[in-house]
Amino acid sequence: xxxxxxxxxxxxxxxxxxxxxxxxxxxxxxxxxxxxxxxxxxxxxxxxxxxxxxxxxxxxxxxxxxxxxxxxxxxxxxxxxxxxxxxxxxxxxxxxxxxxxxxxxxxxxxxxxxxxxxxxxxxxxxxxxxxxxxxxxxxxxxxxxxxxxxxxxxxxxxxxxxxxxxxxxxxxxxxxxxxxxxxxxxxxxxxxxxxxxxxxxxxxxxxxxxxxxxxxxxxxxxxxxxxxxxxxxxxxxxxxxxxxxxxxxxxxxxxxxxxxxxxxxxxxxxxxxxxxxxxxxxxxxxxxxxxxxxxxxxxxxxxxxxxxxxxxxxxxxxxxxxxxxxxxxxxxxxxxxxxxxxxxxxxxxxxxxxxxxxxxxxxxxxxxxxxxxxxxxxxxxx
Length: 382
Fold this sequence. Notes:
By secondary structure, the protein is mostly beta strands. It has a domain at 6-37 and 85-316: YVTN repeat-like/Quinoprotein amine dehydrogenase (Methylamine Dehydrogenase, Chain H). 3% of the residues lie in helices and 43% in strands. The chain has helices at residues 11-17, 27-31, and strands at 3-4, 50-51, 60-66, 76-78, 81-86, 90-95, 101-106, 117-119, 124-128, 133-138, 144-149, 159-161, 164-168, 173-178, 184-189, 199-201, 204-208, 213-218, 224-229, 239-241, 244-248, 254-258, 263-268, 282-284, 287-291, 296-301, 307-312, 322-324, 327-331, 336-341, 347-352, 362-364, 367-371, 376-381. A hairpin with a 5-residue loop joins strand 6 (90-95) and strand 7. It starts with a strand and ends with a strand.
């Protein structure tokens, strides 16, 4: 490989979102928690895709690892290890400095888009597989701590809050599991697949499902705090920042939901091309950044919902962007990995991987890790 240079809220949701329950932390505050780790999908529980990590201005390939099958799972980085799932049916623990495997954990079926989440405190890494099993694996030796079986495949990624693991399943449910034992603490049923990963803010999980409903669920006990019909099938994960939730839909729109005002405050829909948004949003510098199946990376003003800039690739963009400093990192199905300027959207650098990139980059400790659909895991650094 070579480098190439309106919805009306239900009364229950209105009640919970009217007061202090509305999120108050910003993406910058969440990202500032750590620059050396990217412990879960999108980097943090609010799913904003932002880190304060410093990435070298000029990138090169530091190492690659051949996983043996497609890598749609996005990496988690913690304790000097990159954890990545593959369609081969393995959760890999790769040394971040060298790319050499520390251990391989076998699953009954492949790991699809479910991305690992690491709890350093518990010494466990969590992930779901396409047989519907959620796994908790010991980071020390790669042995199973526990498993939990749902009734359909799991493509949602786990999110941790205290002693609770929250994850969705294609059986139409969102589960709250005890992180130490794997026992079910609660379950919330929806009317269709739960594909996206829930964002957790101030003890509340927010997600938009394939049943066209945006929901708020209290993580401590699974209490449904209300819902908001959004009129569109949603496969993307919700990102929450400064009291608003942002997500794309299969009705070719990106929505901003004001949680305190209890309504959709804007809808972004490109006029020239009508394609679904599958990529999950990154929130940085007042911008909502995400890829579309129209082959374009879009940056939207978070306040107004107006386009700030667009960047065309050569194929649909299902990878979700990561933001570090003034740069945006994102893959495309055109087989290229792009580094874009956050302010202007201009390309700074690109790398030809030779295979579609649907996984999302993880950024920590001065490196960027991403997998490709031909099974290559790539670590970029200085």
